[in-house]
Amino acid sequence: MKFQAMLKILFSLLKKRQTTAAELAANCGVSERSIHRYLEELIVSGVPVDIIRGRGGGIFLPDTYKLPENFFTKDEYAAAVNALGALYEQMHDETVKSALDKLLSQQKADSRSMALTGNIVVDSGTWGDAYDFSEKLKVLEDAAEHCECLDLLYIDREGRESRRIVEPHLLVYKQNIWYVYAWCRKRGDFRLFKVGRVRSARKTGEIFPRREIDRANLPLKFNFENAPLAEVRFSVQKKALPDVEEWLGMDNIRVDGENITAEATLPQGEVLLSKIMSFGDGVRVLSPAALAKEVQARAEKLASLYAGD
């Protein structure tokens, strides 16, 4: 009974995306207290159920969530759809029809989500992801295209969680990171939100009037606004060359026989240190000396963590 009720809750949310505990309780024939207990178990299992209390609240499933790819194999999925279809033809039971509609709403696509514009193809998925990022980007792109407001649950770099209604206008791709450029009603201004930090996105059903945007003045220099810049020179090992080329660009690299160096103007700070450390012994900072000492100190601290192993 418990797992049947949990599946019924899940499929109901997949179809409607928004409901109430009272409605779920009536549909499942259990108490609202049991519904909240089942919802907690769904959340623990990885389903991003969003419970908002108070006026205008309810139980929500983000538009960015779909059934995991391995929930059904393709053959299992086809068999389930066919079986439910045949059963409905015989019984004309609305419960069977509802279950069939829910499955059909989750039809699988054989190919990854790709944005195609002219001669440019962009695979929005990250390496090894389970289509989660691609689905999130698809929802944001669709909302921007059709001027639909989104309810975002956003996590900043300090781990602070905030909920806000935004009007998405553009998707921005810069330095291998996707952003959504949206009017934030909480701040009363345009903001750039990292797509990777969007925990969930749900269409509210409200259509917003598109605002005028001067694309020439988009804040695309945000990586340099709050950090001092440094002229950095690196010595690069051959094994790290492909990754450094992708990071800094071919024009910033000089190859002289076995000697490979790279020069670039980069924003100082934690992001730069982490990037340099990610190359291991494949990259060495030649200048400035202060940055080289920072990297050395970071490496010594990292080595001390494993000193007793």
Give an overview of the whole structure.
By secondary structure, the protein is α+β, with helices and mostly antiparallel strands. It has 4 domains: 2-60, Winged helix-like DNA-binding domain superfamily/Winged helix DNA-binding domain (Arc Repressor Mutant, subunit A, Orthogonal Bundle), CATH 1.10.10.10; 74-104; 131-220, Roll (SH3 type barrels), CATH 2.30.30; 228-305, Alpha-Beta Plaits (2-Layer Sandwich). The protein has 10 helices and 14 strands. The strands form 4 sheets. Strands 9-8-7-6-10 form a 5-stranded antiparallel beta sheet, covered by helices on one side. Helix 2 (21-28) crosses helix 3 (32-44). It is elongated.
A few lines on this structure:
It contains 10 helices and 14 strands. The strands form 4 sheets. The protein has a 5-stranded antiparallel β-sheet, with helices on one face. Strands 12-13-11-14 form a 4-stranded antiparallel β-sheet, with helices on one face. A 3-stranded antiparallel β-sheet has the order 1-3-2.
List strands and helices in order, with pairings.
Elements: H1 2-16, E1 18-19, H2 21-28, H3 32-44, E2 50-52, E3 58-60, H4 74-91, H5 94-104, E4 114-117, E5 120-123, H6 132-145, E6 148-155, E7 161-174, E8 177-184, E9 189-194, E10 198-207, H7 222-225, E11 229-236, H8 241-248, E12 253-256, E13 259-267, H9 270-278, E14 283-287, H10 289-305
Helix pairs in contact: 1-3, 1-5, 2-3, 4-5
